[in-house]
Design a protein that fits this description.
Strands 2, 4, 5, 6, 9, 10 and 11 form a seven-stranded mixed sheet that branches. This protein has a four-stranded antiparallel sheet with strand order 1-3-8-7, with no helix packed on it. The protein contains no helices and eleven strands. 0% of the residues lie in helices and 54% in strands. The chain has 115 residues and is an all-beta fold.
Length: 115
């Protein structure tokens, strides 16, 4: 069983930055994929960024160039650096881990970007 705990959300003005953290139980270096997703009210959950075991990262067009996912294996923590935030980035952000064929989710952290 993997537990994921997100932190770092909050209220920020448009153009500002936030860094989210996801602390995991277990050795994240052995996880196939870790990622960040978000869900805005009335919308489906969508991918924000992923990082695979090799260190390769990928982003959808909506976050490419503004968001950066990284990980610290020694701390079993994955980060999401979010820059140039826009009001449309407002959502609950969830950490995700794919380990041994099972997907795990954190409880989410709210990010609100004011215009």
């Amino acid at each position: 069983q993997v537990q994921l705990v997100e932190s770092g959300g909050g209220l920020v003005q448009a153009g500002g930055s936030l860094r989210l953290s996801c602390a995991a139980s277990g050795n994240i270096g052995s996880f196939n994929v870790m990622g960040w997703y978000r869900q805005a009210p009335g919308k489906q959950r969508e991918l924000v960024a992923i990082i695979i075991r090799s260190g390769y990262t990928n982003y959808p067009e909506s976050t490419k160039g503004r968001f950066t996912i990284s990980r610290d294996n020694a701390k079993n923590t994955v980060y999401l650096q979010m820059d140039s935030l826009k009001p449309e980035d407002t959502a609950v952000y969830y950490c995700n881990a794919d380990h041994l064929g099972v997907r795990y989710w954190g409880q989410g952290t709210q990010v609100t970007v004011s215009s």
